[in-house]
């Protein structure tokens, strides 16, 4: 019970800020995050032996069967966020301009960082592979679902389907890698969606606070976005990189 109260306290700083701007904040936006995070918490602490351990054993013994893991999810977790920032640059109609999406994404990912790190310290949950005590919730899932929900908010359900598919893959991959329990993934999904919605709710207040001007509503930011990509290669270190410049 003490741990549950501490988690609730983690959410409190965000609530008044969102509630002050009723034009953006909607209480119904808390339903899906609460259901997912609550289900993850309940399964992890009340159904660990009955649900999580059988799921883990099935994945590792019957499905994976000792096959190597290539950690693809650690790369795919960034795909939804990349979609959110770049689809508009490719001409897809967006609810916000690139500048607004960048602010929105920044707020959302700062929230995701807090909602990932603080519960890990509070719950001190052992990973299924025994690696450390940072299992609950899944940080990869939080990041992936944050990006997926931002895609839904700015581009609609069609593009969100692909972003959410990537997020679900990330969660499944973390179970396959034996790094997380099922409850970790469900809680991570809920906290990721909540993080994205915090970004949406606080966009206008943050713009007002820092005097960020309104920009065009089309995905290209009224044609004011210029993208420059310069490929780089280091012959001594045998590495490749790219420099990306954005002007908006």
Give a verbal description of the structure.
It is a single chain. The protein has one domain (2-247). The chain has helices spanning 2-11, 14-19, 31-46, 48-64, 73-76, 79-86, 98-123, 139-155, 157-176, 182-201, 203-209; strands spanning 226-234, 239-247. β1 (226-234) and β2 (239-247) form a beta hairpin. The protein is built from eleven helices and two strands; from the N terminus they run αααααααααααββ. The chain is mostly helical and 248 residues long. The chain has a two-stranded antiparallel ribbon.
Report the biggest beta sheet as strand number plus sense, adding barrel if it closes: 2 strands, antiparallel
- Work out the count of structural domains: 1
Order of helices and strands: HHHHHHHHHHHEE
Largest sheet: spatial strand order = 1-2
Number of helices in the DSSP assignment: 11
Radius of gyration: 19 Å
